[in-house]
Specification:
6-stranded antiparallel β-sheet, 2 domains, alpha+beta, single chain, 3-stranded antiparallel β-sheet
């Protein structure tokens, strides 16, 4: 009888896990479908304006390899923009070296980003994206410097940099 009980309990646990995963996925799909952005394009239109790596990051929430972004070492005064729609999103004054291998900022410009809960990779994180086109930037963590204590850990592929004019 112990074997039968073990098999029944294991089957029930697998069923509960499958059902909860399905409901979480349905909720994420519904949430994504409800969010409407000012700039919308088809995948074909995005692919025509973005490189394949940019498309993977901005439109498919991929992550670039750490240490590969030229923006990691960008130290000039200026503004970082969304690579998808050119919205100004991060001032250079909030950029800092986090040691993670990705461009990091302690704050964004007002009304520049949106956030949502990300339950991928067996953890809960805060995903941040362009509030105008929905392009995925990266994630926000609570281990950044003051005054916010936040670390916006971003994919450099999702951004472009415009130096300040004299």
């Amino acid at each position: 009888m112990k074997r039968r009980q073990f098999l029944l309990a294991s089957g029930a646990a697998v069923a509960v896990l499958a059902i909860s995963t399905a409901f979480r996925h349905m909720g994420a799909v519904a949430e994504a479908e409800e969010e409407v952005f000012e700039v919308t394009k088809t995948d074909a239109e995005w692919r025509a304006t973005l490189s394949e790596p940019q498309f993977a990051v901005l439109r498919q929430e991929d992550t670039e390899r750490p240490g590969t972004s030229p923006l990691l070492d960008e130290k000039r005064k200026g503004t970082f923009h969304c690579a998808g729609c050119d919205l100004a999103v991060y001032p250079s004054e909030t950029k800092y070296e986090s040691g993670t291998g990705w461009p990091s900022f302690w704050d964004s410009l007002p009304d520049a980003i949106g956030t949502k809960q990300d339950n991928s990779l067996f953890m809960t994180r805060v995903e941040c994206h362009c509030r105008r086109c929905g392009g995925h930037f990266g994630h926000i963590f609570d281990d950044g410097p003051q005054p916010t204590g936040k670390r916006h850990c971003l994919n450099g592929l999702a951004l472009t940099f415009k130096p300040a004019t004299a």
